[in-house]
Amino acid sequence: MSFIQVNNLCKRYQLGDNTVDALQGVSLSVEQGERLFLGGPSGSGKSTLLHIIGCLDKYDSGQVTIDGNDITHAGDKEMSLFRAQNIGFVFQNFNLMPVLNVYENVQYPLQLGGTIPPAHRREKIEELLLAVGLEKHARHYPNELSGGQRQRVAIARALVHQPKLLIADEPTANLDTATGDAIMSLMLDLSRKHGSTVIICTHNQELLTQAERCIMLRDGLIDEDSTATFTSSFAEKKYACI
Amino acid sequence: MLVFKIAWRNILRYKRRSVFAILTIMVGVAGIVLFGGFVEANYIGLRESIIRSQYGHLQIHQQGYEINHRRDPNAYRMSPETTRQAQSLLETAPNVLVTSRRLEFTGLIGNERNSRAAIIRGVDPDTEALINSALTIVEGEELDSLDPEGVILGEGLAQGINAQVGDVLTLLGTTINGVMNAVDVRVVGIFQSFAKEYDDSAMMMGLDKAQTLLNTQAVDSIVVLLDDTDTLPAVVADIGGKIKQQQLAVEWQEWYKMTNYYQKVVDLYNGFFFFINLVIYVVVLFGVSNTMIVTVMERTSEIGTLRSMGMQRSGIIRQFLVEGLMLALLAALLGVATGNAITWFVNSLDIMMPAPPGSSKGYPLSLQYVEDIWFSTVAIVATIAFFATFFPALQASRKAIVDALRHV
Ligand SMILES: Nc1ncnc2c1ncn2[C@@H]1O[C@H](COP(=O)(O)OP(=O)(O)O)[C@@H](O)[C@H]1O
Ligand SMILES: [Mg+2]
Hints:
The structure holds two protein chains of two kinds.
Chain A: E1 4-15, E2 18-30, E3 35-39, H1 46-53, E4 61-66, E5 69-70, H2 76-86, E6 87-90, H3 102-112, H4 118-131, H5 147-159, E7 165-169, H6 177-194, E8 197-201, H7 205-210, E9 213-218, E10 221-225, H8 234-238
Chain B: H1 2-13, H2 15-55, E1 58-62, H3 65-68, H4 80-91, E2 96-110, E3 115-123, H5 125-131, E4 136-140, E5 150-154, H6 155-160, E6 168-174, E7 180-192, H7 196-199, E8 202-206, H8 207-214, E9 221-226, H9 232-245, E10 250-254, H10 255-258, H11 261-298, H12 300-308, H13 313-347, E11 352-353, E12 363-364, H14 371-398, H15 401-406
Parallel strand pairs in B: 3-8, 5-7
Antiparallel strand pairs in B: 1-9, 1-10, 2-3, 2-6, 2-9, 4-7, 5-8, 6-7, 11-12
Helix pairs in contact in B: 1-13, 2-11, 2-13, 2-14, 11-14, 13-14
Adenosine-5'-diphosphate binds at residues 13, 15, 20, 22, 40, 42-48 of chain A.
């Protein structure tokens, strides 16, 4: 069985009288250690898919299994615990805690769960700060850092508890191209070292074309899967969620 | 603990908002501490005035006195023997400062032109002066045991019969055998006691002369003054035991059983105090909830981030509760400290208070330090902060994580 298994995933948002079908029957599988890029126009459902795979959101139908765990019927507590132990997030807006310094921000996930014993935490944090090149900024606060530096902190924070899955939603969208490229390769390097499976969604065409594997979404459907093992017809997908 | 560190740094981070909330609570708490100290000062002032104006802390009577003496005063007085025994028992008890005998009766006081019915009290002049330390001589002098003819009149009574210090008056009374009797007395002083109504008909004289007039050796009461009002319950327990032991045929009454005036004033002030507290706490509630609602709203995306890292809903609530409580407790403690500082300052000004309703004498303002109020105020403010924080935090923790993350 694959590390991530998504079958016929549908998600509908209700906004007053309007309904938006954000995902209309998405199926995919991701192997352990794989690095998957998600592309597609804005509004195509990338974030929605990432949130569901990241155990942040519920869905209407279909099935999602991560590392053998079917999260369809999991409650809030289980999902939280699962995230704390298995998933790291990198966001477009960095989302650092403004009142914590760099060291404390990276330390934070270790307090929420994870498997690293307290005695080894310091070592782990310092190792990651070194890896993202911020060992000299450990006592700095986020507002004293540049965007690129902040995202480095976020990457260290996302990986400190050695998650099996790293999810990044447009991590370079708020950075200039050069910084963005550096951040992207840092993230890919580090996650490989940690053996984490990675799903990144991006608008960067270059990255998408170079990617080992890339899935393009359109209107809540998979438009193209560069290493897809099967391709179902458009009609099949369309009527998959009723 | 990280949760405390984060809470504290957030309080510092949102300075203006924190200062506003802290000031609201501080001013409210300081107000309660001050007003509570003022109310307590009034209770104590009133209590001591009442005790020292005529009642003493405690009075000892012949058994059955309280129920029967109005109907048959002569039959329910203490014999000299009982009086002596009771007095020697009292004088060896701890905390008893002084005891004094009284003989109470009514008579007619006046001269050729004017006379009035008077409530007359025969007293041991030397000890009575100690008990009536709140009784002010407005003209002339106090009673003197060396001047058995001397009497003092209440201000209202003196005016009623147009008597001046130095006047010789005639006092008419009835002996215990039912025979009319008269003695000449001389006005040595005019007094104000605690209650005006009393002064309108009150007169005091030496016990010996009073006993002569009534042709008796008995007394109505032994008035007991303690060195500290707070020791009254202990003293009563002690004396009660000894009275039983010696099988003395006496009963006793504490000062607050002799007048309901004190309790009425206390109830009135308590009503004010409660109302003021209520108003202050409502203001505190709005201040804290306003602060915490804004705080929680502003940190919505942070909540989303924390949740995405695996923090439970309870963890979110805990974080904000710690923050709200930290802010409130800090402010409440500052408020108590401020209240006490102002109390100290006001006391150092030596302000005189006007006479309370129905009385004729003022007393010095001495705001009290009431520890119970400190603790209850801090506890109530903490409770208010808990609820003012809990509900916004609960609501925030229930928000869908993805919505919280999207919140800018
Ligand atoms: N919370 C929401 N409420 C209503 N509609 C939403 C919500 N989140 C996303 N959508 C809609 O779902 C669709 C997919 O959104 P999203 O997954 O954010 O796309 P992408 O990340 O690819 O830009 C869009 O049409 C968006 O407007
Ligand atoms: Mg998106």
